[in-house]
Amino acid sequence: MFETLSDRLSGIFDKLTGRGSLSESDVDAAMREVRRALIEADVALDVVRTFVESVKEKAVGQDVVKSVTPGQMVVKIVNDQLVELLGSEAEPLSLSASPPVAIMMVGLQGSGKTTTTAKIAKRLAERDNKKVLMASLDVHRPAAQEQLRVLGEQINVETLPIKSGQMPLDIARRALKDAKTGGFDVVLLDTAGRLHVDDELMEESAQVHKLTSP
Ligand SMILES: Nc1nc2c(ncn2[C@@H]2O[C@H](COP(=O)(O)OP(=O)(O)O)[C@@H](O)[C@H]2O)c(=O)[nH]1
Ligand SMILES: [Mg+2]
Fold first, then answer.
1. Distances (CA, A) of 99 to 33, 78, 125, 183, 213
2. 2-86 CATH, one of 3.40.50.880, 3.40.50.720, 1.20.120.140, 2.60.40.1640
3. What's 132's DSSP letter?
4. From the CA of 4, which ligand is nearest?
5. Which residue in 40, 95, 185, 194 is a FRET match for 117, CA 20 to 30 A apart?
6. 154-196: per-residue pLDDT in tens?
7. Which atom of ligand 1 is nearest to the CA of 117?
């Protein structure tokens, strides 16, 4: 998702910096594209709105249009603002709760939850020496649980044995229990992708959340 976004943004910026002078409407047009790129990358609408507004405010305040390298100044302002929005420092995962610590992966279908689950697991296991268990609660997509199992084999991280027909909440319960008895530090719960318009799946998420306090 961020790769596409950064491609889009650099495209917009290339257009800006490639020009000697900029009018205010050039800046406006670029910001409209930035806005669209952010929305298409699933950034919340009010976040996008605030973002674009503060960039414009700064751009106007610094007389971008009259400066020698207007394009670069706009790019710098957008960049600074993005850093501020995303946070300028990496936040380490907090694992200070008593083990096993549950981490619940949520997000839209195809957004990379399962892949990221394996990446986090590998990092926690190899770099932080944690004993990690991964469990797939995705019973909606046929091969989802198998996908996680295969990834687990590749990175040498244990996965909860698949029991066909078991519901997500029961899988979560079993994962916690196995993690506890097996002395695991972390249990990663890979959920099925969902949209907020899907009430049933959202309710399921809420129940898993309540059960596992991730
Ligand atoms: N380019 C790229 N592709 C990714 C990344 N993470 C996941 N994918 C791909 O996106 C697709 C969906 O990923 P998956 O982890 O199954 O998403 P999930 O549905 O949220 O579990 C797969 O084809 C992945 O190989 C990433 O960081 N970069
Ligand atoms: Mg998945």
1. 45, 41, 14, 8, 12
2. 1.20.120.140
3. E
4. 1
5. 40
6. 999 999 999 989 999 999 999 999 999 999 999 999 998 765 5
7. 15
